[in-house]
Each structure stands twice: as C-alpha cells, then as structure tokens.
Amino acid sequence: MSNLVVLPVLLPLTTGILLLFLHGRLRLQRVIALLSLVVGLGLALFLANRVWSSGIQVGFASAWKAPFGITLAVDLFGAMMLVLSSLASLLAVWFGMHSLDAGRERFFYYPLTQFLLVGINLSFVTGDLFNLYVAFEVMLIASYFLATLGGAPGQLREGFKYLVLNVIASTLFLLAITLLYSSTASLNMADVAAKVAQVHDEPIITLVGVLFLLTFGMKGALFPLFVWLPGAYRQASPAVAAIFASMLTKVGVYALIRVMTLIFNHDPAFFKPILLVLVGGTMLLGIAGAIGSKDVKLALCYQLISHVGYMVMGLALGTESGLAGALFYIANHVLVIAGLFLLAGVIEAVTGTTALSGFRGLFGSHPGLGYLFLGFSFAMAGIPPFAGFFAKFALLREAFAQGSYVLGGVALLTGLLTLFGMVQLFRRGFWGEPMGERRAVPNYRAMLAPAVLLLVLIFGAGVGAGPVYRYVAAAAQQLADPSIYIQAVMGR
Amino acid sequence: MELLTALAVALLFGIGAYLLLTRNIIRVILGASLISYGLNMMLMSTGLLKRGQAPILVEGALAGGNLLRGPNGNVLGGSPPVYADPVPQALILTAIVIGFAVTAFLFVLGYRTVQEHGTDNLYELRGEEHDE
C-alpha cells in the first residue's frame, strides 16, 4: 500500500486546474508549468527507483482493497513509461514556450498539456480496466483540443477525422470492458487475469481479447488502423505533435502489452499469428509511406507508424527476451521521435514550411540543425553507437532464435529502408543549392536545446546499454510472469 | 426483457454504423452518439435487468440465481436474483458524462469545420494535398 502512485496523476491535475485560473498571466503560467513538469520528472524517477528496489507499488483508492475499489499499481514497465512521459512532455513544453505563436500559447496550451499528462500518466499507473478507459478519455479530450489548437482549416479537417475515429475506438473499448465485466464480474486487471486464467477455453474471452486488440491497435496506430495518424499529427503544432508522437501511440502500445501479457495470455496460438501479420504490415506499409512522403513532418509520421511495429514485434514473439527488446525499443523510440518532431518544428520556424519542395540546402545556413538531424536519422535507423541498435539487436536475435525468419527479415528490411528514408530526407532538405526563405528565429538556440539533450540521452543509452538492458529485462520478467503482478495487487 | 434490450442495442448500433458511413458531418456525429447510447444500454443489461431490487448486498442474497460458474465452482459472472449490481450503473454514469463532453466537442468542431471549409460533405474534406 503506497500513496506515492497517485502523485504522478495528482500533480499535473492540480497544476492544470491552477493554470486555468491564471489564464491571462502567461509568464506565470510558463514558470508554474515548467516547475510542475520538472517536479513530475523527479517524482517519476523516484518512483522508478522505489519500484526497482522494493517491487511493484500498489495503491488503493479510499483504501478499498482489490478487487472492490480502484487499484493503482506501478511495476517496472509502468515506472519506465512515467519517466519517459514526464521527460517528453517537459521538453515539448519547453519547445512550445519558445516556438508557439502568442495566440496558441495563450489559448490554454499549458493547462491542456497538463491534462493530457493526467490521462497519459493515469493509463500507466492504473490497475483497473474501466479506470484505464477514463484515463484514455481524459487524454483524448485534451488531445482533441491540442490537435485543433489554433483552428487552421487543415487542423479542423484532420482533427475531425481523428476525433470520429477515436470515438469509435473508445466505443469498442467500452464494449470490450462490458463483455469482460459480464463474464468475469470484475474490472480489476489482476482479478480479471486470475479469473481468466481459470477458464482458458471461453470463446467470449477471446472475443474480448480481439476487441482490445482493435482498440489499442487504433490508438497505437497498428497496420490497418493508422490512417488517422499522419493527417492529424502533421497538422498539429510541432510542440504538440512532439508529445503526441512520442507518447500517445506509446500509451496504446503500453495498454496492448499490459492486457496481452496479463489477461489474454491463455491462447497464444490464436493471437500470435494475428499479431505477426499486424506487425509485418505496420512496418512495411509505414516505411513505404515514409519513403513516398514529400514532407518532413509527414515522413516522420509514417516513420513513427512503421516503428510501432518493432514495439509490438516483441509482444508478438511472446517471450521474455522479446518483451525486453520491445521495452528497450519503446524507451529509445520515445526519445528519438520526440527529437525528430522538435527538429521538424525548428525547420518549420526557419523556412516557414516542412514540404521538401519548399526548402533546400539548409546545411549552409544552419549546420547545427543539419548535424542534429543527421544524428537523429542514424538514431532512428539504429546505427551502432545509438540505443536503437541494441534494442533492435535484442528483438532480431529473439526472432531468429524462434525461427521467425520472415518476421526477422521484414524487420531488417524495415531498418534498412528507415535509414534510406531518413538519409533521403536529409539529402533533399539539407544538401543542394539553398532554396526558399530563411527567417531569423530569435529563440533558435533555445529551440534546439531539447533535441541536443535527447540526442545525448540516446547516445548515453546506447553506450550504457548494459544497465538499461538490465532494467528492461527485469521489467520484462515482471510482464512475462503475470502471477507477480496479480500477487502484488491481490495480496495473495 | 433482456431480449428486447438486445434488439434495441442492435438497432442503435445498426443505425449508428449506417450514419457513420455517410458523408454528412452531422450524420456522422449523430451516428457516433447513437452507438454510444446503444453501448450504454448494453452496459446496463450486463447486470441482468430486474425491477425493484436494491443495489445492497444482504445476507443470503448470493444464494441461487443465474450465476456463471467456472470449472472449480467459483463464481465467474452473471448476477444473483435479489440484488441489483451497482457497478454497471456507476459505469454508465461515467460513460454518459464522457459521451456528453465528446459529443459537445464534436458538434463544435464539426460546426467550425463547416464554417472554415464551406462544406459539410466529408468527401470534399479528403485532404488532397497529401496525395501529391
């Protein structure tokens, strides 16, 4: 029993409400928002340290013991995601502070990012399925506002599609919860898992599993369901798109890994082939979109989709070392894609566009930006000194050890095409005769700072891959054996 | 009673799905809300529908009833006859509030989209500049 687990939700919630009252006072809003995010990061690190040293932290709302009350539980995977969400939102808000135009910044940008963080963090700490639904809704409503912040025609158009598709996905989520409740009479994840483990052959459980797969596949932008993502993320402001790209899809992937390892582990023969097809399709179609895009932001959106495939690949492989690779990849990808979207934001600020036809030869006037973009391109593709290499290595080793040569081949091909796509972006955007306008950006250095920090972190996670792998391996061990989680929550 | 509810839910889902597939913004919004109403009805019927039962668990209430039991005889689901399950009702309440907020936002967003683009036909809002 620990009240610590509620703090990652409570802190952004109180900050967000406070910021609503400080509507006109922008400078105060900035200070409070940043301060709260820094405290949140420290809190997440403290919580991760606590989970590492003394096991899964469990909290009960109003001290109602599981399965009756709402349970909050943080294991190593959840703690890792909390650290990543705090870090990504801190850097994105810092970027937003220096890049957003006054109108957008004034129009509730800071409170909305805090509310978005409430939803994201609640999804990572909750141990209750209906609570997870509520967390998703809090996150999505904040994201609807943020995606359409500014109200440009393109934003409204893509935002509407994003909203309608997510409303449908949420409905399916609620449907799955309803069916699960009517067949297990519980909403507590650990309790549901314990009950489902006793009835392996119930077809309704498999149906619920498929519905969860659909829902989280939609949120996580898996293969046939990713159509909403490129338009919505491309139209959003860079400071918003960076949080979306680094965290929102990861919440879907997190929830998918959580329910698949904890609850629907009863029928791997049914789920594994489905997951493998989804993973392969996501990787290949995503990377095809990335190579075909003529816009930096759009190409990054497709890169993001393609690399969601790697994260789910570890789940599809279904073993402990596969999961460890997936977790490592998630951590790596949050940092890489946040950095790339921030750089795309800098490019947009400098040239006024992200369409590759609108600028060229950026390297001559902005060499620092060029080197950073090249560094992130290599990090995205997983070139050795960066963390992505070790994560991909863990995944591929597991795939080949299991004899999944087709999947391993697809993953290798995707890695190669990623490098090709990123280098193509670099070549067409940064090399050649300078073209298009160059705007003077007063906050240029401050805008680049988060990307520099992220690149250093990715490099550090690559050089220090040993300790990082030890952490994700321990987290994967907790995931692979659901009885650890069930025992921590149910107390037996 | 359960059969009637099931038919009503099916009807709402069917109409909702049909409206979602049309090209008019208002119809799409109405379709999304109809589906969520259908879901709320379904959520209510998970506790089995019965009249005049208090959601208070008294002694002996769990004996008998229409319970779904697992292989070891443990209770997996269903509901006993003299006790109304309060959980689905609490869930519906939350789902209605969330649905209300999302629908309100959908209407505002739809209205603004129509204002900015001058059309409520989704076919014309495809986003042609992506396809170059």
Can you tell me the residue ranges of chain B where pLDDT is under 50 for at least 5 consecutive residues? none
Using CB atoms under 8 Å apart, which protein chain pair has the greatest interface?
A: A-B, 39 and 41 residues
Question: Count the strands of chain B?
Answer: 2
Number of helices of chain B: 3
Task: Indicate the topology.
The complex is a heterodimer of chains A (492) and B (132).
Chain A: H1 7-21, H2 26-54, E1 57-60, E2 71-74, H3 76-99, H4 102-106, H5 109-125, H6 129-147, H7 153-184, H8 189-196, H9 203-219, H10 228-235, H11 238-262, H12 268-292, H13 296-317, H14 320-351, H15 362-365, H16 367-381, H17 387-401, H18 405-430, H19 444-463, H20 465-480, H21 482-490
Antiparallel strand pairs in A: 1-2
Helix pairs in contact in A: 1-2, 1-5, 2-3, 3-5, 3-11, 3-14, 3-19, 5-6, 5-11, 6-7, 6-11, 7-9, 7-10, 8-21, 9-11, 10-13, 11-13, 11-14, 12-13, 12-18, 13-14, 13-17, 13-18, 14-16, 14-17, 14-19, 14-20, 16-18, 16-19, 17-18, 17-19
Chain B: H1 2-20, H2 25-45, E1 66-69, E2 75-79, H3 86-117
Antiparallel strand pairs in B: 1-2
List keywords for this structure.
heterodimer, A: mainly alpha, two-stranded antiparallel ribbon, 2 strands, 78% helix, globular, B: 132 residues, two-stranded antiparallel sheet
